[in-house]
């Protein structure tokens, strides 16, 4: 199987709640500032939203993968991925 990247293609799933949109901003800020405390707050909010059913499985997995990047010290990549997650929300109508 060959994977092809095409500009404008989505990498991340659309988020399904206003709370998840706010969480994207919080995640980006945590990664951009490389702030462990903010990242911990993101994890707590992610857990809360998942428990309340405000995140789909794919959404939750996307957030968790970015948090894991940051937790493993890959802050720059986590920052890029959190920005991409936000950008993909602007491309809701594009096909994958």
Describe the overall structure.
There is one protein chain. The protein is mainly α and 96 residues long. The chain has one domain (18-90). It is 66% helix and 0% strand. It has four helices and no strands. Helix 2 (36-51) packs antiparallel against helix 3 (57-71). The protein is globular, with a radius of gyration of 13 Å. The model is unreliable at 1-6 (pLDDT under 50).
Short description:
This protein has helices at residues 18-33, 36-51, 57-71, 75-90. By secondary structure, the chain is mainly α.
Describe the protein's topology.
Elements: H1 18-33, H2 36-51, H3 57-71, H4 75-90
Please supply descriptive tags for the structure shown above.
single chain; 96 residues; mainly alpha; 4 helices; 66% helix; globular; disordered N terminus
Count of domains? 1
In terms of DSSP E residues, the strand content is: under 5%
On the 0 to 100 scale, the average pLDDT is 88
Question: From the alpha-carbon coordinates, what is the Rg to the nearest angstrom?
Answer: 13 Å
Helix content: 55-70%
Structural class: mainly alpha
Uncertain segments: 1-6
In whole angstroms, how far apart are the ends? 16 Å
């Amino acid at each position: 199987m060959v994977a092809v990247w095409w500009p404008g293609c989505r990498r991340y799933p659309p988020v399904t709640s206003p709370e998840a949109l706010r969480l994207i901003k919080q995640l980006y800020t945590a990664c951009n500032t490389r702030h462990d405390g903010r990242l911990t707050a993101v994890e707590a909010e992610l857990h809360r939203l998942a428990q309340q059913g405000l995140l789909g499985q794919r959404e939750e997995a996307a957030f968790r993968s970015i948090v894991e990047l940051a937790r493993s010290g890959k802050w720059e990549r986590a920052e890029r991925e959190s920005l991409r997650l936000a950008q993909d929300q602007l491309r809701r109508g594009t096909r994958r």
